[in-house]
From TrEMBL:
Coiled coil location: none
Pfam assignment, any one: Coprogen_oxidas
Annotated pathway: Porphyrin-containing compound metabolism; protoporphyrin-IX biosynthesis; protoporphyrinogen-IX from coproporphyrinogen-III (O2 route): step 1/1
InterPro entries, sorted: Coprogen_oxidase_aer, Coprogen_oxidase_aer_sf
Entry's Gene Ontology molecular function annotations: coproporphyrinogen oxidase activity
EC class (word): oxidoreductase
Protein name per the record: coproporphyrinogen oxidase
Superkingdom per UniProt: Bacteria
GO cellular component: cytoplasm
Family indicated by similarity: Belongs to the aerobic coproporphyrinogen-III oxidase family.
């Protein structure tokens, strides 16, 4: 797939971020006495229903002692939206063609005291172009200290770019990560942003810092909680929470819907689902 300079720079940075995340997570496993490592499975985009398909991605998955299941996926695709889906995407009024590249991460932790987490960053182009993404923390056993430190870190990062970002994007996360049929939230929030199109350089710089913020704060939270001994009630609570997480991702998550509507790789799309869950 031939890419222009902006597309190349974003793709290369997402790949580099993926490599650094995988390396850091493997190091956490090694420090815990595990030899777990990521497997990398490339895929090519294929769909008979969408014209001018192209691109693909790499699905990266690890099952370890600390990370029961963690996936770090990257993709770079182009194609043509279906008429129905195009109406929901900016810049497709006259031309339904698109380019999209991104990184998506979901970590389901083995110890219920260690918070689960989700992070993604993406760049899309139709007749318009924009960045989107965010980070949200999903503990089954919430700790006020972890939640406070997590939000403080994100606020400091946002403030380096725009003092309005954290209030806007944390509120957006509060509204977005909602499970309306359960009348509960998914996790303890974070930031969520989309359609960020002020200018390429500043928006890309902010998106890079979202990735850097993740790499900075999450390993600290893992180290803080991974040696706490869980009991049966902790695991019961974890698996019930995972069921709620699965419901959100299958019913409401934008990334899941986008992947399904654009001929993405099914295993990569459903990477976010937990290794096991229960429903009452």
């Amino acid at each position: 797939m031939k890419l222009d300079e902006q597309q190349q720079s974003v793709c290369h940075w997402f790949q580099n971020l993926r490599d650094r995340i995988c390396s850091r997570f493997e190091a956490i496993e090694q420090e815990a006495g595990s030899d777990a490592c990521f497997t990398f499975v490339p895929w090519q985009r294929q769909s008979e229903e969408i014209e001018e398909d192209g691109g693909g991605g790499v699905r990266s998955l690890m099952n370890g002692r600390v990370f029961e299941k963690v996936g770090v996926n990257i993709s770079t695709v182009r194609g043509c939206f279906s008429a129905d889906f195009a109406r929901k995407i900016p810049g497709t009024e006259r031309n339904p063609h698109f380019f999209a590249t991104g990184i998506s991460l979901v970590a389901h932790m083995a110890n219920p005291h260690v918070p689960n987490i989700h992070m993604n960053c993406r760049f899309l182009r139709t007749s318009k172009s924009w960045f989107g993404g965010g980070i949200d923390l999903n503990p089954s056993t919430p700790y006020e200290q972890d939640t406070s430190d997590f939000h403080h870190h994100l606020k400091e990062m946002c403030n380096r770019h725009n003092p309005d970002y954290y209030p806007r994007f944390s509120q957006w996360a509060e509204e977005y990560f909602d499970i309306p049929h359960r009348h509960i939230k998914r996790g303890v929030g974070g930031i969520f942003y989309d359609y960020l199109d002020k200018d390429f350089e500043s928006d890309f710089a902010f998106t890079r810092d979202v990735g850097e913020a993740f790499l900075d704060i999450f390993p600290k939270l893992v180290a803080r909680r991974q040696d706490i001994l869980p009991n049966q009630e902790d695991f019961k609570r974890l698996n019930i929470y995972r069921g709620r997480y699965a419901e959100f991702n299958l019913l409401y998550d934008r990334g899941t819907i986008f992947g399904l509507k654009t001929g993405g790789n099914i295993e990569a799309i459903l990477m976010s689902l937990p290794p096991q869950a229960v429903w009452k």
